[in-house]
């Protein structure tokens, strides 16, 4: 075993004698090796620690749901779900000077932790994709600084995912081979000049997979955010040319992306071998066509979707767990509560932008060759730059999907709804989503109202009015607002485009 690998294993070993472990960590530090190990696996589920009385309450509430609900869109048992997720902006890239985590990040992570955030996701600015500062797409822009940031996250009991694409690769990178790509297959906007490498290319796989393993093992991150960089068969068409290096090992159809599924499954296996997490972005509102094979833990949706309500309709029946991100470059957010109205009834919760301010400086690095000064991404960056110059102390924009100017109430609103949502989705909860037939109501639901139920220590009802007029909902039993002890009622008036979470009272 190489000395560097021995030091990493010794620093992370929980079986080591205390004195030996201390010595090994010191040796590792002197060698420049990270001792920031992934956090331990998830703690035992909440329900596994319940007393007999708590188990009784849980089963009684589940019985209410099962006895009362005859038909719903989806039924799901909530386990190992990290609903509080933040896309953390480490800094600007491209850049003149690499970002460097400091006291600002300590305080920002404290704030996010206090708001209920459990998982930090860093986007592609974590690495040096254009090799501007001695790194590459699979190594940290600031290796020492990134190790330190990972430790900051872990110290607070949160998880961290690093960006790694199964398809995208910079067209300027000297390691890119043209035979990995389909002819003309790429993404070009702002500073991004990305080829889409084919999942059917064995040479690309042999290059990519060890790089992903390196990210997991070298930096001690808890998993990968895979921005897949792939056009599915259903969008590409049957006669699209293949990459020169591709082996057509699978029967590819509009309903099954065989090579992509196989590569995603291999990546998922590597992450899970380490007890990690894989979040996948399959573009727009897509879920991957894998014929049911599980290849991710979380699915990011929303990029380039131009209507938030349309996004809801497209992803509402995607398998859990879905993380919506309304892309405000294209879609408008109608009210502070809109992102939560569109997601909570379907066992989904929107991601929170956070971290360092997105200043837009990445679009104006001297000497850097941008594709066009006037494409949508460049305009967005300039708008963020102008805003940041006028408001250096905030409220801040935190990413290209964030609103410019930002909503000054968005962080507070996210924290409010996340606290409620984490109550109803506690580990071991059963969820009945979009109830169609049940005995829970004394009158039919209005046409624009969606109801979902959640059962654990309490029995909760989520009511969402997607109409433009107020709606009356008549429940068969008495409920309270989730965060109130007064105002119990069987009849509830929902304002237009509004959401209410209720807690059933007097459950025997």
How would you portray this structure in words?
The protein is an alpha/beta fold. Helix content is 29%, strand content 21%. It has twelve helices and 18 strands. The strands form three sheets. It has an eight-stranded parallel beta sheet with strand order 11-10-9-8-4-3-2-12. Helix 1 (3-12) crosses helix 2 (18-30) and helix 6 (202-219) packs parallel to helix 8 (258-273). The longest helix has 18 residues, at 202-219. It starts with a helix and ends with a strand.
Query: How far is the first residue's CA from the last residue's CA?
Result: 61 Å
Secondary-structure-based class equals: alpha/beta
SSE ordering: HHHEEHEHEEEEHEHHEEHEHEHHEEEEEE
Quick one: biggest sheet?
8 strands, parallel
Quantity of strands, as a count: 18
